[in-house]
Amino acid sequence: MSYIAERREEEKERRRLEIIEAAEQLYAEKGWDSVTMDQVARTARLSRALLYVYFKDKEDLLFAITGRALEELRHRFEQATSEHQLGIDQVTAIGRAYALFQQENPFQFDACSRYHAHQAHLGEPNELACNAGGDSVLAVIVESLHRGIADGSIRADIGDPLKVCFMLWAFSHGLIQIATNKSQEIARQGIEVGTLMEEGRAMLRHMLAPGK
Amino acid sequence: MSYIAERREEEKERRRLEIIEAAEQLYAEKGWDSVTMDQVARTARLSRALLYVYFKDKEDLLFAITGRALEELRHRFEQATSEHQLGIDQVTAIGRAYALFQQENPFQFDACSRYHAHQAHLGEPNELACNAGGDSVLAVIVESLHRGIADGSIRADIGDPLKVCFMLWAFSHGLIQIATNKSQEIARQGIEVGTLMEEGRAMLRHMLAPGK
DNA sequence: CCTGATGTTGACACAGTGTCAATCACTAGA
DNA sequence: TCTAGTGATTGACACTGTGTCAACATCAGG
Predict the structure, then answer these.
(1) What pTM does this model have?
(2) How far is the CA of B177 from the CAs of A103, A139, B24, in angstroms?
């Protein structure tokens, strides 16, 4: 009877999700480095050893969390684009959505930062899932760029949209990171974080705006 | 006789430097996370316990390394600016110097990335030194921006140069990071890393260029 | 009731960090 | 020259966290 194997499969998937959610909760509370596998196990109400049945190691668990974060991000980006017609407005909305994502789910943004900073080893299954997730996020942006070029709201000579996409990613992610991590430093220099982000978006529009 | 205390002070400083250099060497070889205090001690030919006399903990040692990296970076930026007259050319040269810095001293760039990503706790003496170092790096860029505005090679309506400076930092650092960490990913999508950086610099110039 | 497969765990070995009392080296004053 | 004292240096320890493994538990199917 295969429906039994099926049920087991589902339970396994559910437990896997429970572990991830427990880890996410702790991540949000104290930052990834302070999270121990023991705490994750306790929070998910199972033994530490069992975690290693579901995840190769702590890094593997982080990849799973990052995958979910990227999924959430893509969803938010799609939502943001759906609210605008013009390509350039979609891109701006994506930038705004990214900043909001950081504010509302700081730990997920942190996971993205780690993914962003860590160089790929390739081979881990969960890491590949991460890469796929990252690609699909970029795909949303690329689409908006194409639309913008088509509707004339973005200059046609920006070059390869995918390359530009990487630039936008670097720009937005970096700026948000600076704004959040160095907020004290920034404030000390007499800059207001809100206006920094605001002008950042303006600069972004300027980058893409067609010559008048 | 105070010249004895003086000599001791110098020896202490020298030993401190030896520790840092040992740590840097290991950092370059295997990445910071894989470096253990024991290895640092062995490489510097002293006991592990002594490290903790000179540095509060491993993170403190990293701050010291980062401080030196930022110093090196500022030096390279100053060198780069000195080779150009026009403000915009200086800024472009800084971007290029940053990329070169990554290629030649990957571990120092990595240290900068960690500094960039880690949020300040404020209080550690070496961390404050890092912040000061970071500020002086930014100061070099700000100066070139001002010059560019003065000589007309950079549009005057970019807004507060310091804010723009943060944007340039975010943009350049993020792009270099992506180019190096995700090179496989990028290549797989049919993009050549060299041209990505090239076009990134072009985009940077476009950002700052005065309307014709 | 037995059996085999799958799920689950306690206990272990290992690696790395940070601390501290004890020891060593050397200077200055008796 | 001897010795007290100060600062440099270390071995050994306690602690925390990771990943593994043999053993135990559960349960469907014969």
Answers:
(1) 0.94
(2) 23, 20, 20
Question: How many Cα atoms are found within 13 Å in the side-chain-facing hemisphere of B13?
Answer: 6
Residue B192 falls in which region: left (phi positive, over 0), alpha (psi -120 to 50) or beta: beta
Residue B167 in tokens: 């944007």
> B211: which 2 tokens?
């309307």
CA-CA distance, A100 to B5, in Å (whole number)? 56
B2 CB-side CA count, 13 A = 0
What domains can you pick out in chain A, each with its CATH number? 1-55 (1.10.10.60), 58-208 (1.10.357.10)
How many Å apart are B33 CA and D25 C1'?
A: 39
Angle between helices A2-30 and A106-117 (to 10 degrees): 100
Residues with CB under 7 A from strand D: A 1, 4, 35-38, 48-49, 52, 56-59; B 8, 12, 15, 46-50, 53
Tell which phi-psi region holds residue A114, choosing left (phi > 0), alpha (psi between -120 and 50) or beta.
Answer: alpha
A interface test, pick of B119, B130, B142, B195 with most A CB neighbours within 10 Å: B119
* Residue A9: CB atoms within 10 Å: 11
H-helix or E-strand spanning residue B95: helix B87-104
State pLDDT tens for residues B31-68: 999 999 999 999 999 999 999 999 999 999 999 999 99
pLDDT digits (tens, 9 = 90+) for A79-119: 999 999 999 999 999 999 999 999 999 999 999 999 999 88
